[in-house]
Design goal:
The chain is mostly beta strands. The chain contains two helices and 15 strands. The strands form four sheets. A four-stranded mixed beta sheet has the order 4-1-8-7, with no helix packed on it. A four-stranded antiparallel beta sheet has the order 3-2-5-6, with no helix packed on it. A four-stranded antiparallel beta sheet has the order 12-11-14-15, covered by helices on one side. The longest helix is centred in the middle third of the chain and has 10 residues.
Length: about 325
């Protein structure tokens, strides 16, 4: 029940084997200007398999693999606002993809399964990170991953990303025992989602020999202004309180989370790990109308310095109300 309530605070409820490796450029700079900065991401269809990730609380997670086998793939997506080309924080980013055989969870023979789907919230750098497997391909489509940048119920951007052809097919060749279909036969011009241009949807792809995994990065520009969020227009607070961004953010060992009580009540601050588990709670009771703050020192709570989602829960005579944001550790 507590996890379901946490998701409601975001407006989410109710609305292998050792195999030879391909010869990759082993440069670790995967967060460079690929694609070019601050150009609006092309809008694409959500595709035939876009299950509503908010219907099932299981999807709030970074590692989306479950039981799927394949080359380990670390995907970083950065969201920036078109109006000022700055990072957008507290944006919910959903991703979903097929497995090594081209199958999606939740459909046909995969009904009831949840693999390779998940969402996270952008940090102070506008970034989310997922651990997944490198996707396979299926007839009619080039290898791709779907994603949605959900700013609020007012606006969400839906698109897809893909990869350099030579590097991608090198993975299929190196892991031929797993990716039994072989090389992806299509090029960008033969795919309906990318035939009209793919420069801003082409993710970098780099092999990391230290972790035996493949790292990808994509910078995504959407409508809006960085360092702000349309989420303030969401109704989840019920007009009972205002929750502000923690400061400093990013933080080192300590941060404060300010909020304003518009009606008397009790305030509870919950800390959630990015795995979707609540790891701490502190409270203030009998508050009158006015501005307050929670001082958070993770070490004093027995927690490591890390990124957390913080949720403010207000309980008063009108009911229970919630809102959540991300706090970013240095």
């Amino acid at each position: 029940m507590r996890r379901k309530d946490f998701l409601r605070g975001f407006g989410l409820a109710g609305i292998g084997s050792i195999l030879p490796k391909p010869a990759f450029n082993n440069s670790r700079d995967i967060s460079g200007p690929l694609p070019p900065n601050c150009v609006l991401i092309p809008s694409e269809t959500a595709g035939p398999f876009p299950l509503d990730l908010t219907e099932n609380q299981t999807y709030f997670r970074q590692d989306i693999r479950e039981d799927r086998t394949g080359a380990t793939h670390n995907l970083k997506i950065k969201i920036i606002g078109l109006e000022n080309c700055l990072p957008m924080q507290n944006v919910r980013v959903n991703i979903w993809q097929c497995d090594k055989d081209g199958l999606y969870s939740g459909y046909q023979t995969q009904m009831g399964l949840t693999y390779l789907r998940g969402y996270q919230f952008t940090d102070a750098n506008g970034e989310v990170n997922f651990t997944t497997i490198f996707p396979g391909w299926y007839t009619g489509r080039i290898c791709h991953i779907h994603f949605q940048a959900y700013v609020s119920s007012i606006y969400a951007a839906v698109s897809q990303l893909t990869y350099p052809i030579a590097e991608k097919n090198a993975i299929y060749a190196a892991y031929s025992q797993l990716y039994t279909k072989g090389a992806d036969p299509r090029n960008f011009n033969q795919d309906s989602a990318f035939s009209n241009g793919y420069a801003y949807q082409l993710a970098s792809l780099v092999y990391d020999p230290q972790t035996d995994s493949y790292d990808s990065y994509l910078e995504v520009t959407i409508q809006g202004s960085g360092l702000t969020s349309l989420a303030k227009a969401e109704p989840e607070t019920g007009g009972q309180f205002r929750l502000f961004q923690n400061h400093p953010n990013p933080y080192v060992d300590h941060t404060s989370i300010p909020f304003e009580m518009l009606f008397p009540g009790d305030a509870y601050l919950e800390l959630w790990a990015l795995t979707g588990k609540m790891v701490g709670e502190i409270s203030q009771h009998g508050l009158s109308v006015g501005r307050y703050s929670f001082d958070v020192v993770p070490n004093l709570l027995g927690l490591p310095n890390a990124n957390y989602v913080y949720q403010l829960r207000i309980e008063n005579s009108s009911g229970i109300f919630r809102q959540a944001k991300m706090m970013t550790a240095i």
